[in-house]
Amino acid sequence: MPLVSVIIPAFNAGQFVHHAIESVLQQTVPDFEVIVIDDGSTDHTVEAVSPYLFDSRVSCISQKNRGLPGARNAGAQKSRGDYLAFLDADDSLAPNALEAMVHRFQQSGAAWLNVGVLKVEGANRSIRHPQVPKGDLLLAILQDDFVTRSPFYPREEFFAVGMYDETIRMREDWDINIRMIEAGKPFAVLDEPLTATRAPKEALRLEIGESCIAILRY
Prior knowledge:
Elements: E1 4-10, H1 17-25, E2 32-39, H2 45-49, E3 58-63, H3 67-78, E4 83-86, E5 91-93, H4 97-108, E6 112-121, E7 124-128, H5 137-143, E8 152-154, H6 155-160, H7 172-182, E9 187-198, H8 210-217
Parallel strand pairs: 1-2, 1-4, 2-3, 6-9
Antiparallel strand pairs: 4-8, 5-9, 6-7
């Protein structure tokens, strides 16, 4: 059984999914599996993944389009690892990401992590450091998603909180962050840029006030 399952949801990601896969294959911890979920792509996503399938740790599963939450959940349900790492197809992991993640979980006993992010905008690079507000964390996260990035979970904790909500097509990360805090799940901060994300992201963004969405829902 692998130590970590890295789940890469991919929809029309043929241009960049190879960067995500290669960032996993370069990890300092070799005990992992990579599950690419082709979420109903109409481009060459499957063909872009094919050259990596010679590695027994890499698999690709095609399904009808279920959206990002559904693709992540499908990967989690197929996974075998003790820890789950969710990686968008247009993002990449730092070489030590999985090692640092596992060490922090084992050290802290946390149920999830808030980690730093390297933001890439053309030739510009900037680091977003994780911040934790003082006071009532549930109230704070209902007002604004202060979690920089939380793509890492011990397996049992992810399933216990109910996975991603597939009825939400945007800001599913914010939703699961709210539920983790509401359930009293302890999190640890890891102030390292363990993921790199391109901007602007490929996904569509809502044009309305996103803070209102979480407050109205909860």
